[in-house]
Every structure is written in structure tokens, then in C-alpha cells.
Amino acid sequence: MQNQLARAAPFPIALADFPRILASVTHKASYRVGPAGWNTPGFEQVRAIRFEVFVDEQRVPAEIEIDEMDPVAFHVVACDEAGGAVGTGRLFADPREPDLAHIGRMAVRAGARGSGCGAAIMQALLAEARERGFRRAVLSAQTHAIPFYAKFGFRVTGEVYDDVGIPHQDMMLNL
Ligand SMILES: CC(C)(COP(=O)(O)OP(=O)(O)OC[C@H]1O[C@@H](n2cnc3c(N)ncnc32)[C@H](O)[C@@H]1OP(=O)(O)O)[C@@H](O)C(=O)NCCC(=O)NCCS
Q: Whose CA is nearest to atom 43 of ligand 1?
């Protein structure tokens, strides 16, 4: 596997910025997850994946896809063995509760779903959250994805609500 990754196309992320680059290998595929800072080439991958998944596929209005938290959030990109960017997610501190992390914008390109990419992204974000000393992580889950988040220990904390026409429920994890 190491040799396969070494031969892969250049990873589009500044590896030096992220000593904890994660590799995730399942029986179906392997992914590497690294950081993608705001206003870097890596963030263009983030933007492309989010627009493909949320705007084109889920019909989220394009004008709200990039928000005020993006410049300050920690973003990751997951790449497949060929070096193609196929998934993303982000993490940021709650403005009022500094030990509370928000995880969101989890998106995996349709063709890569179901082979461990989302799990690799979540592992990277949770590792980063623990490294930064957060005590809890919260997220707003599209209800179809609740079983995915539950696999990492997130538990539903409230009622179902609508956000841009998609049913959501809040979930929380003690880190
Ligand atoms: C939700 C999403 C990020 C999951 O990514 P993924 O790459 O398909 O997930 P993985 O393959 O890593 O799955 C990890 C585990 O969760 C399970 N899982 C993933 N999605 C699931 C779902 N919708 N329901 C139940 N289980 C699910 C997988 O079966 C796998 O289980 P296993 O470890 O027992 O094999 C992806 O489906 C996606 O991008 N969806 C569209 C955008 C979206 O809705 N994002 C969520 C916004 S809140």
C-alpha cells in the first residue's frame, strides 16, 4: 500500500502543514486525509466537492454554501489512491464555548461513497479536535446520515428541524 501511495499523483495538500496526515485503508479502498487552508489550492478542491455534492446534488442554494465560518475553519480533503480529491469536511470552535467544536460540511463525491472515505475524514477531524483540546463535538446531521455519525459515537440531542429543505437533527460527542 505504501508503494501504491508513493506512486500516486501529487497530493494536492501542503503535507508539511499536517504532521498527522491520516491514511485510511478498508477492504474496498484507501484514502489519505490532509488539511486544506482557506485561500490555498487545497481549498479549491474543498469548494469543488461541496458545490458538486451540496449545490448540484442536494440543491442547497449556491450563495449560502460558502459561509462566514469557512475562512476560520480547519478544512480537510480526502484523496484516493490516484491522488484525486474525493471528500471533505471542516471543524471550527464555537464562538461562545471554546471547548466546543463544530464539525460539518461532510461531503464525499457520489462515486466514492460507501468505501471508507467519510470515515477517514471523520477520523481526521476528531483527531484534530482532540489535539486542539476540545471537550465536545457537535454537528447538524442530515437525518439520512445519522447512522453514519452514530458509528463514531455521536448521539442525537434534539428534534428534527428543517434547514434549506433538508431534515436535520443535532448530534453531540464527548471527546
Ligand atoms: C454521509 C457521507 C459523508 C458518508 O461518507 P461515506 O464515504 O459514504 O461513508 P463511509 O463509506 O466511510 O462509511 C463509514 C460507515 O458508515 C456507514 N454509513 C455511511 N453512510 C451511511 C448511511 N447513510 N446510513 C447508514 N450507514 C452509513 C457505512 O456503511 C460504514 O459502515 P461500516 O464501518 O460498518 O462499514 C456521504 O454519504 C455523503 O457525502 N453524502 C452526501 C452529503 C451528505 O449528506 N453529507 C452529510 C451532511 S450532514
A: 107
Q: With a threshold of 0.85, does the pTM exceed it?
A: yes
**DSSP track, 36-102:** --TTSHHHHHHHHHHIIIIIIIT---HHHHS-TTTTTSEEEEEE-TTS-EEEEEEEEE-SS-TTEEE
Nearest ligand 1 atom to the CA of 119 is 12
- Average pLDDT score over residue span 17-31: 63
Kindly report, residue by residue over 109-136, the tens digit of the pLDDT: 999 999 999 999 999 999 999 999 999 9
Give the nearest ligand 1 atom to 87 CA.
Answer: 39
The residue whose CA is least distant from atom 7 of ligand 1 is 118
- Is residue 13 one of the residues assigned to a domain? no
Domain count, the chain: 1
Residue numbers of the domain that contains 158: 29-174
Give domain status of residue 144, yes or no: yes
CATH code of the domain in which 167 resides: 3.40.630.30
Q: Is 106 touching ligand 1 by the criterion CB < 6 Å? A: yes
